[in-house]
Amino acid sequence: MLATQVTDKAYKGWQASLALQFCHTPEKTILHSARHVGPLTVQRPFYPENETCHLYLLHPPGGIVGGDELEISVRLEAKSHALITMPGASKFYRSNGALARLNQHFFINENAVLEWLPQDTIFFPGANARLRSVFHLHPSGTLLAWELFCLGRPVINETFSHGTLESRLEVWLEDQPLLIERQHLTDGNLTLVAHQPWIGTLLCYPASDALLEGVRERLTPLENYAGATLTDGLLSVRFLASDNLICQRVMRDIWHYLRPHVIAKTPHAPRIWQT
C-alpha cells in the first residue's frame, strides 16, 4: 500500500469482505464457496493430508490502514476439516485518526474441525485498530486456534509508543459463552502486557486436564510470562514474550502436541511456514 494512502486524510479505506464455506465429501473437505468483495481472497486449496483442506487467506496488499473495514466469515459444515493460515504477517499501519476494523466470525458445526493458524499481526506505532474474533462451536465441533500480536517492530527497537489497539476474543458453545476476553492498549501504556512486544493466545476445544498439564510443561521457555487454564473443556493458553522466534517455537510445539490428541492426526505443518 502506498505511503500516501496511509497518511492521506481523504483516504476512504477498503470495504472488504470474505465468506468461506467448507463441506465434507466422502473423499475430502472441499471449499464449497468463497465469496469476496474487495482485496480479501484465498489461494487454491491444498491437500497434503488427503482429506483435510489446507487454505491460505490473503489480506489486502501491503496491510491495513485507518478507514479500512474487513469482514471475514468462515463456516464449516458437518464433518468438514479445514486448516487455514496466511502466507505472511498481517500489518496495521499508522493512522491519521481513522479506525481500522477487522471482524472475524467462525462457525464450526457438528463434528467439524477448524484449525485457525494465522501468522502474526503487526501493529505499527500510531495504528488505530479494532479487532474482533468470534468462534461459534457445536458441542461436537473441534477448535485449534491461535493469534499472535506484535506491538511495534522490536527487531529495530521500535515500540508501540502511541496509537490504540482494541481486541475482543470470544468462544461460544451454542448459545453459552466459554470465553469473552477484551484488551485495550492506548497512548503507549503497555503496563497491561508487562511492556512485552509479543502477545500470544492459543485455544483448544475439547481439552482435558491431562492436556492442560502437557501444555504447561511446554510453556517453560517463556518462564513467568505464560499460563494455561481449562474452563468447561476450553483450553486457553496466554503468553507474553520479547522474542518472536521463542513465541513461534512454543506455539508450534503446543500445536504439535495437541493435534494428535484432539483430532487424531499427526502434525502436518503448512508448506508456507517453511518459506
Explain the overall architecture.
This protein is mainly beta. The chain has three helices and 17 strands. Strands 3, 4, 6, 7, 9, 10, 12, 15, 16 and 17 form a ten-stranded mixed sheet that branches. Strands 2-1-5-8-11-13-14 form a seven-stranded mixed sheet, with no helix packed on it. Helix 2 (209-218) packs antiparallel against helix 3. Mean pLDDT is 92; it is low at 1-8.
Q: Short summary of the structure?
A:
This protein is mainly beta. Helix content is 13%, strand content 44%. Strands 3, 4, 6, 7, 9, 10, 12, 15, 16 and 17 form a ten-stranded mixed β-sheet that branches. Strands 2-1-5-8-11-13-14 form a seven-stranded mixed β-sheet, with no helix packed on it.
Helical fraction equals 10-25%
- Helix-strand category: mainly beta
Task: Report mean pLDDT, rounded to a whole number.
Answer: 92
Terminal Cα span: 23 Å
The topology string of helices and strands comes to HEEEEEEEEEEEEEEEHEEH
Strand percentage: 35-45%
Rounded to an integer, what's the Rg over CA atoms? 18 Å
The largest β sheet comes out as: 10 strands, mixed
Q: Strand tally, please?
A: 17
Q: What would you call the shape?
A: globular
Number of helix segments? 3
Offer a few descriptive terms:
single chain; 275 residues; mainly beta; 10-stranded mixed sheet; 7-stranded mixed sheet; disordered N terminus
